[in-house]
Amino acid sequence: MPASAPPTPPRRAFVALPLAWAAFILTSTLTPARSMPVTPHWELLAFDTAAHAFVFWVLTVLATFSARRQRWWPGLRHRAFSTVAVAAIGMGTVIEMLQMWMDLGRNGEWSDILSDALGVLAGTALMWLTRRFWQ
Question: What pTM did the predictor assign?
Fold first, then answer.
C-alpha cells in the first residue's frame, strides 16, 4: 500500500497576538503618568523614541503576519502590508492625540508619532523582505 503524505496543518492567523499587543500598547500609553515607572536616560538615543519604535515594530510584525495568513478577508490578505502600516500609524496618531486631550499627566508629542511611524516602517520592511520564509 503506498504511503501518503500527512495532511498539511491548517494555517492559523494568530489573530490574538496582534490584538493582545495592541491592548498592551493602549494600556501602557494611556495609563496616568503618576502610575508609570521612571525611564532611563540614554545619551545617544532617547529611551522614549526607542521604546515607541520598538513597540510599533512588534505590532506591525505581528499584525502583518496575521493579516497575510488569515483567510476570512481576501482583500486584506492581498493588501496586508499597506493596510497594517496605515492602521498602525493611525493608532499611534490617535494615542498621541488622546494623550494631548485627556488629563492623564502625559504629553502627546509629534516626535512620538514619528517614532511610531519609524517602527512601523521598519516592521513593514522586515516582513516584506522576509515574506518568502513565513508565508
Answer: 0.80
